[in-house]
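Example for tutorial group B:
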């Protein structure tokens, strides 16, 4: 039998992009074959030991050039930025299942599924970039995506609030507009890829919501109050709208949570 946490460690603690993809696919196939085990006592390395490729060059979000649909270079830069988000999402999914132990097996199966789907998304975008003459890493990317993982390395509830229920949920808000813009410029392939990603991301946020509520139940906490407290604690302010209320409801957000997000106070 293959230990899921050993595979997670192998994936997280080496920086080669292709190797991370291979390990993710291997783990998913082993899970489907019933050949994975969950040895909870496997050592947990500090999150600072996570490795990434030297490319792309990472910059502060404020130092990144604006990406416009009006030029080919702008579209390519946007697709590269989206590929970077999906690549980091692979690592985020692996880290949450690696770092937090003694949970039901379904927790680990759910996040492995997320890692595998994020790897599919990354591969779709990377192949699309290659057709435009650019590979992942050829352009700079922003360095803010891993910060939330580092900030929440010691608290599963905070991780669930900040990553699937904030960062990924934001994708539900902004991706439909990007799909429309790609359709406007007749880039139907990009629109098709983003539609696939959007549909899967609803499921990822829903998984995050399920486990957020589960952990709140274990800790005897009110989920809505805990979500508000954690968002303000880590972000210092609410995420900016507009919000895709229909998709967020499907993904498990309550009407009270949406009302709180939309309230200016």
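The residue assignment follows.
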């Amino acid at each position: 039998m293959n230990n899921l946490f050993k595979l997670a460690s192998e994936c997280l603690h080496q920086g080669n992009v292709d190797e991370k993809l291979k390990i993710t696919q291997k783990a998913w196939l082993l899970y489907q074959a019933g050949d994975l085990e969950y040895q909870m006592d496997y050592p947990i390395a500090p999150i600072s030991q996570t490795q990434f490729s030297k490319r792309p060059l990472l910059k502060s979000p404020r130092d990144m050039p604006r990406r416009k649909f009006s030029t080919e270079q702008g579209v390519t830069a946007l697709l590269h930025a989206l590929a970077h988000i999906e690549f980091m999402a692979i690592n985020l999914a692996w880290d949450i299942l690696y770092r937090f132990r003694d949970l039901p097996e379904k927790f680990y199966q759910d996040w492995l599924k997320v890692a595998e789907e994020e790897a599919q998304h990354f591969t779709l975008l990377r192949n699309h970039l290659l057709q435009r003459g650019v590979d992942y890493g050829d352009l700079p990317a922003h360095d803010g995506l891993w910060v939330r993982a580092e900030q929440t390395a010691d608290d599963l509830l905070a991780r669930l609030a900040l990553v699937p229920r904030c960062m990924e949920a934001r994708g539900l808000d902004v991706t439909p507009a990007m799909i429309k813009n790609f359709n406007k410029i007749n880039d139907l392939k990009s629109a098709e890829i983003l539609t696939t990603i959007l549909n899967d991301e609803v499921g990822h946020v829903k998984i995050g919501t399920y486990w957020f509520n589960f952990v709140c139940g274990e800790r005897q906490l009110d989920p809505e109050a805990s979500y508000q407290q954690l968002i303000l604690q880590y972000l210092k302010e609410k995420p900016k709208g507009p919000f895709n209320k229909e998709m967020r409801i499907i993904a498990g957000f309550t009407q009270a949570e949406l009302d709180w997000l939309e309230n200016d106070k």
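Residues 13 and 50 are 5 Å apart (CA to CA). Compare this with the pattern of hydrophobic and polar residues in the output above.
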